[in-house]
Structures are given as structure tokens and as C-alpha cells.
């Protein structure tokens, strides 16, 4: 579902203009795609920050200049110190259009007792309708035994979602953890005797 955002056309450019926009609680953005000329916009900082913070591949319905456009958030540039959004790239999309995006892979459930599972594929490239992009792809590991490998071909993708990732690519691997054997603690008495012998040798050398 698209989030409605009131945007403004941006006519000032450069670092100074960007700083002024951010002081006015606006985020500089550029909208491009479908062979159209880029459109430079300013977006309300607080609303957009909350959306991109909680939603990956966020879809925005932008109202500006008397019309509206549907846009997918493609890139968010942040200040690494303040964590403020400095700029956003937006991809123009149409309703009914499929887009290529990466979505996170998450697991649910518990594998068999005594086993652990590791996620080898943290995200997966998919194609989905711009208006129906899944937030994540969920893999159930409930009761899976040691040695089980869940591959891309085993994933249950939402209706209308496809992927071109190699079907044999491992996604989740279940295994029994191997603990390192603890080395035996050194015998404190033996260590003390060794230290005394070394001290006696030093005394003899000095004499």
C-alpha cells in the first residue's frame, strides 16, 4: 500500500540549498524513471523518516504540482553521525508494473533439539508488483533436522512474486554445533615446581 506524501517542487540546488531544506524539515529528493526527465522534490522530513525507518522498499504516492505520482524508494543517503536523511532517490512506477527489489529473508520456528540454523542468504532478489512488494520472505525451520538445507527452490513465495536466483542456492542450513574441546588446566603444583627449579638454576649461574 502506498503512503500518501505531499511533496514540493525543488528549484534550488547545491549543498547550501540542501542545508536550508533540512533546516526547514525537508528532505531533498529526485524522482526518475520511465524515460522522463528527473523531477527534483522536497519531502516532509518527519513523515518520510518514519516510513523508511520501518518499511523497506517503501512505496509513496507523491502529490505535487497539482498531480500525483507513484514512487518506490530506491536509495536513502544518511548522515552517519546524526542518522538524518540527507537525500532520497525515488523510482517512478506505474500501477500494475512489476519491479525488481531485494527483500530480507527471515526465519520462524525452532529447528530440532540440539541443532542451530544459519541464514546463508540474508536477502533475495525478487520481482513483484510495485503495489504488492512483500516486506520479507519467511522460512519455517520448525523441527528441521541436522543436515537440512533449505534452498531457493524450497521457498514459498507470495502470489505474483518471482525470483531468478539459482534454485540450488542455499538459504538456510541446519546443523549441530561442534563445541571446541577444552584444554586440560595446567597442574598448579607442577607449575610451581617448575618455577622453583628455574629459580634454583638462576641462583647457581649467579654463584
TrEMBL record:
Record's protein name: Large ribosomal subunit protein bL25
Domain spans labelled Large ribosomal subunit protein bL25 L25: 5-90
GO MF, any single term: structural constituent of ribosome
Function as written in the Swiss-Prot or TrEMBL entry: This is one of the proteins that binds to the 5S RNA in the ribosome where it forms part of the central protuberance.
Entry keywords, A to Z: Ribonucleoprotein, Ribosomal protein, RNA-binding, rRNA-binding
Homology family: Belongs to the bacterial ribosomal protein bL25 family. CTC subfamily.
InterPro entries: Rbsml_bL25/Gln-tRNA_synth_N (IPR020056), Ribosomal_bL25/Gln-tRNA_synth (IPR011035), Ribosomal_bL25_b-dom (IPR020057), Ribosomal_bL25_C (IPR037121), Ribosomal_bL25_long (IPR001021), Ribosomal_L25_dom (IPR029751), Ribosomal_uL5_bac-type (IPR020930)
Quaternary structure (record): Part of the 50S ribosomal subunit; part of the 5S rRNA/L5/L18/L25 subcomplex. Contacts the 5S rRNA. Binds to the 5S rRNA independently of L5 and L18.
GO biological process: translation
Short name of any one Pfam family annotated for the protein: Ribosomal_TL5_C
Gene coding for it: rplY
Organism: Litorihabitans aurantiacus
Domain Large ribosomal subunit protein bL25 beta as annotated: residue spans: 98-177
CDD domains: Ribosomal_L25_TL5_CTC
UniProt GO cellular component terms: cytosolic large ribosomal subunit
UniProt feature coiled coil, ranges: none
Listed Acidic residues bias regions: 182-207
Ranges where the record places region Disordered: 177-207
